[in-house]
Amino acid sequence: MVQDPLKVKFFEKAQIVSEKLNKLVKENGDLKVDEINLGQLVGGMRSVKSMLWETSELDPELGIKFRGYDIFQLRELLPKVPNGTEPLPEALFWLMLVDEIPTQEEAQWLTDQWMRRSVIPDHVFKVLDSLPKNTHPMSQFSIAITAMQNQSIFARRHGEGMNKNEYWNATYEDTMNLLARLPRIAAYIYRRTFHNDNHINPDITLDWAGNFAHMLGVPDPDFKRLMRLYLTIHADHEGGNGSAHATHLVGSTLSDAYLSLSSGMNALAGPLHGLANQEVITWIIKMVDILGTETPSDEQVEEYIKATLASGRVVPGYGHAVLRKPDPRFLVQKQFAEEYGIKSNLINIVWQLFRIAPPMLESTGKVKNPWPNVDAHSGAILVHYGLTEHNFYTVLFGVSRSLGVLASLCWSRALGLGLERPKSVSTNWLHAFAEKQLATKSKAN
Ligand code: HAX
Question: What is the pLDDT of residues 398-413, one digit of tens each?
Fold first, then answer.
């Protein structure tokens, strides 16, 4: 059998990291990393350091760094298609998995490898065809991933008594098969739901993202470029976000990559997370409908934001649990639109909001980050290229996010990370705890 260069590299790297980690834990396992206060416990554990994630790290000011490289550096440094301008997402997967930017040849190997592995079992299409067409595309995506679980090499080998030293290997194989197949599944969902089951065959001469763009049926060659960038920038956002954490948690029970990923996709489908990319564009289009103009004045936009806040809703696409500056993933999409001369009234509104929304959110006195996140921009560019079906947008995000969460699942297996099982407490426990602490404090005073 021809050797898999990525697997060989991953195994070598993982052995080194694993040995160092085991030694670190053995010698320093009782060092305190963080503390959690009562507010953080109730408020969703914001910023509590409590999980391992190798593939990327999020800086509140600078944004996401994949193995130390920011989005703008990756746009320059990652391999591209010949004469291409945008990074190959498969090259980012390579970087996340083995902490090295691949050569052009290595990236091409991965493109070819995923094309070879991309055949989807027929029953998956049948499962999708049996769903009502009004099933949300994210539900269809999650169902299709789960439907493929009978293909899991990890699940089969675990059932046969696999040695735990081999978990990484079976997870790597599942990951490679899944990533190879996701664009075809996503495109199938898109064409069945919105284009009358008029499916488009893969083009085996294209790269992973280019072929995805082709199967979606958007003819503009710049859309392929957009997809390469889009699928790169959404790939990972360290470990604590909903989709990453859900994949990690379910994976920690030794559920295979299929079951873990579908859980992650279910988390991504929440409006406070990935579904925000759908919410943003529907919110903007609703404003255009209400005002009866695609070129609203600043005052009209302000009134619309005020009305949104007054009705107890959030401004979608704004705010973040970690970031405290405009999201570089927003800025790079703006840059793309400027570089490619994309002009539309919707894009103007996105940029108008970028001027108007932050001071308004800041003036509420409670929003910790008034700046746009990744989801504030993506929809307007997609509409420009004719991909107007808003409730498909989170599936695009999902295809990309799978790169990061699955690379991380491979690492969790390689490092032998255990079952995730934090301690929970009840409100009664919290009240009693607070009372006791206060009593001790007042005694001491
Ligand atoms: N509009 C209005 N209010 C907002 C807000 C926004 N965009 N962002 C935060 N707030 C509010 C919160 O709802 C919270 O209000 P309450 O105290 O009344 O509950 C308060 O400000 C403090 O929240 P925070 O600490 O600043 O933010 P959180 O960490 O709790 O939440 C969210 C982060 C992303 C969920 C939040 O900013 C939000 O709801 N944004 C809009 C939805 C969105 O764009 N989600 C996508 C985020 C990026 C992502 O994951 N993409 O996939």
Answer: 999 999 999 999 999 9
